[in-house]
Amino acid sequence: MGLSDYMLALVDVGSGHHDIDQKSELCMINGVLVRKRFSGVMEINSSAEASSFMEKSEFPFLPEDYVIVASSITVTFPGWSDEYGTVIQPRLTPCSHPVERAVALADLASAGMDPAGFVRGGILLFAENNVDILLALRDTKNPADLDIITQQDYDHRFLSWLRSQICFAEGRQAMIDEELKGLRPTQRDAVRTLFCRFRESIAAAEQEVLRAEKMSFDQKMAHLMQAVRLHSN
Q1: N or C: which end of the chain has fewer CB within 10 A?
Q2: Cα(46)–Cα(44) distance, integer angstroms
Q3: Is this model's pTM higher than 0.85 or not?
Q4: Collapsing DSSP states into helix, strand and coil, what is residue 213?
């Protein structure tokens, strides 16, 4: 985007503290134990952490820098687009500061930049959100020991999530031009060059679905837990 070194330093602070606060709680929704995140609160707390870091830093931050960095974090507050079937950032506008844009784009970057990371991150997010499945798998030596109704439920939820990742990547691809409005043509071209792998991510997500559909229930759950273990190590 052609940012100066000074602006890049602000981006580093914003992206480094983005979602550093992960406030959430476990709750039952339709009989399923899931993780509920406190969106909005997390961004506000994370921006406060960033401000604290800047105050302690020896870097000569200006008073307005604190506002820019805080806004770069709160602008990532997520929303949902039914039209595109994907996450959006409703506070991001064509008038947003370049630092805000850079942090916001990086927040949802994987589908456009890292196909393997996008697929891997999607599986990890499923594990993080579906707490009941993760706990059940950790408490049993063999997933096949779970009753058939539970197996069918877990199987359906996992496959449905993997299929939703295809729509997520397609939606992010469709949204990118909208999110680049307000940038100069050279800046838009530079960002598009960075976010050039949407089709690969969509294809990778489709392949992940096909692969999972051929797996037995035991294999699906082993695949899920392997991703979790690799991430933990």
Answers
A1: C
A2: 5
A3: yes
A4: helix
